[in-house]
Write a structure and sequence with these properties.
The complex is a heterodimer of chains A (428) and B (407). By secondary structure, chain A is an all-alpha fold. Chain A has two domains: 48 residues; 372 residues, no CATH class. Helix content of chain A is 57%, strand content 3%. In chain A, the strands form two sheets. Chain A has a two-stranded antiparallel ribbon. A two-stranded antiparallel ribbon of chain A has the order 3-4. In chain A, helix 7 packs antiparallel against helix 8 and helix 8 packs antiparallel against helix 11. Chain B is mainly alpha-helical and 407 residues long. Classes of the chains: A mainly alpha (428), B mainly alpha (407). At the A-B interface, helix 1, helix 2 and strand 3 of A face helix 1 and helix 2 of B.
Amino acid sequence: MKLLKQIFIFGGTVSLIFLLSCEEETVTVTEEVIVTDTLTITETDTVTVTDTVLIGFAVPETYHFTRDGDTTVSYSGQTTRLKMAKEMVNALKDETTTIAKLLAMFDHQEGASDFSDADLNASSKQVKNKTGNNGTATNAAAIRVDLEAWMTNQVDSVFPAWTDEASKGLAGYIQEAGGGSTRYVNQNGLENNQAVNKALIGALVADQVLNGYLTPAKLNSGTNEADQAAQTKVDGKSYTNMEHYWDEGYGYIYGLAADGIDPVTTPGSNDIFMLKYIGKVDSDPDFSGTAEELHRAFREGRAAVVEAEFEARDAAAQHIAKTASLVIGVRAAHYLKAGQIGLAAVSPDMAGIFHDLSEGFGFVYSLQFTLNPETGAPYFSREEVMEMLSKIYPTSGGMRGFWDVTQSDLEEAATTIATAFGFTYENA
Amino acid sequence: MKNNISTLCCFATLFISALFLSCSEDDNVQLDEASQVDQNNSTDDQIDGDTSDSVDTTASDIGVGEEFTRVAMLANWANNIIIPAFESLVDNMDSLSLVANEFTDTPNQENLINLKQSWLNAYLAWQTVDMFDIGKAEEITLRNFINVYPLDAQGMTTTLLAGDYDLTSVNRQDEQGFSALDYLLHGLGNSDEEIIAFYTDDTNGLKYKTFLNDVVNRMLSLTTIVLEDWKESYREQFIERDGSGATESVNSMVNDYIYYYEKFLRAGKVGIPAGVFSNSSLSDRVEARYRGDVSKELLIKALNSAQDFFNGVHFSQEDSGMSLKGWINYLEASGSTNNLDSLINNQFELIHLQLKNLNSDLAQQVEIDNIKMLETYDILQKNVVFMKVDMLQLLDITVDYVDADGD
């Protein structure tokens, strides 16, 4: 009976979407098909969507919003920061980079020649002051210390060993089996560049979006609600303050997309942060549709902002929090599982395993920046994350990180993550 | 509240079909099961493509409905295919080792030409065992030390000149094996004289000689280890593990076979050079690129070996025994008959037909007319679908590998 009701709820939703949208958007037929085979997870989502739709405003097919013929969407500052972060991550793979250079890229000051792109040098934007800064001040400081410690380790330990073969306890290079990619790891098998790269997906992207721009506190700050109701624009701009905040959140995820207006049907972005892994999760049959689901929630929320429908806006923001957090959870579990499977091989390919685990390390780190809309807290606290990292990357008591991690530790951590997000080790 | 919503929704549901008619632009409601659909399509294509005259050219002694047992198939594989193939490879490696010694003792043109021929013989013999990545071969990752290409020629030269190298290191896998020999015998210069000069050079000649022999001897010793293991103990284990579980011999071997066909034959020999997985074609990724004119011959040998394995044909003979083909026949005799074995064999024949259109140097084929390479890939791909989807479903075998993530 319950099942039947769910089918009805879902079916109803689909028809309502049709009602509202059949003139301007093509509802994908696959949604209809899903009715036959997915029933469980969609229930709460479906109800949310129903509420949104009942309010009665149109949601565009693409992220295209205008006022008096001018686009109201702007997120160039986010694109700039993503580009800066990308250059910084790439510099970690060039053994001639100095620590001073890396720290300057992280802590960029307007006009300093830190980047190869002159526009970035001229910019007043910075990565560091937007890294992990939505939690407590203590945590923010600790997070920056973590990132700088990986960069320092890279320069002090890995760069000098660039042409040495890595071994347990010694940094160096190690090649994937069968003439595969060469990886550069620290004394414990960690690729610092991967740690930084994947940690920024949480610390820069997820934190800014979920715990920053899309929170009611941020969106409603100042006189934003009244301004939105009155459609009062920012001086000299086509957008309102609240619209701009929403777009800035959007920009952290989609700022490097090939086409920011339609990043779902036009993949092929230059992104190396969240967007890249939304694509990866979406291509896993267990999570297909994730990319569209997330983007649709952004469009719904943005349309709700325009209409000053704040409840609908917050419902969309919660949907975004849940989905973007899931992306981090899935990739964290995925890479830990990949490491476990690699270790189970008759002749383990250590370089491949280290690469997977280094990515997994960064994604696990990023879990502390997720947001569970049902609790208002991250799916894993910083303390829980650090505890988990000490299991998958054990360095105390003479342990040598990924050289010593066990399959059962990896499986346990991945299962813990999967369970928190409502999927299984099998799905990861 | 919830009640209200469901009532409302139920009510709205009544409209759904009408809305469907008025809204949806087309009627291509498709289930999201692309592979299923694809598979059916390709099966249809196959039936349309009339190749019925080439059915059953092999393994005709397996009668429809003949009693099938896993243990009989495993015994046929081990005794009549795998072990003879490894014996032949080791024989060829032995010769190669002798001829390499003759060349390094007396580096002249005659000895170089002999060495090149021995190299090619051994390389062809390798194609008959490459798919058997199981047992000791899997344990020591034989393939990764014998036939990684492209060669890291620069790294190999650095290693060779440095002298103090460890060929057992994973870091050296793309600096040894057949591709290293290819470079050492064909790639060092534009003529035999230029190549020989590397081995007679006062400063580094000895290093080239030593490295050449070290590479050959390592290949000989690794392949010998695998052969001995098959003969001494693994043969029994392999045949005895005749259950239907995921880690039993049949499932493991069939997975290894399809993985090999998909990754090393289809992708490695054809797809990667043709640029199927990259933005542009990569003619320098062909097998034996320095020799040039044998890459198609190696591909044909690999393809024949793969087809013979499917049909249970004894190594280097006409006879055959229990096989995947026989198993399919057996199952189809008791159930629906889709002639899957004929589809697969027909597809192999279509591949052979297509190969007639290709240059003997696949790198040239890529550069001159890559469309033919892409077509070859597509034809090879159809057998991935027949075997990995249709056949594994029929045989109730689960795929035990996933495609790499790619970063």
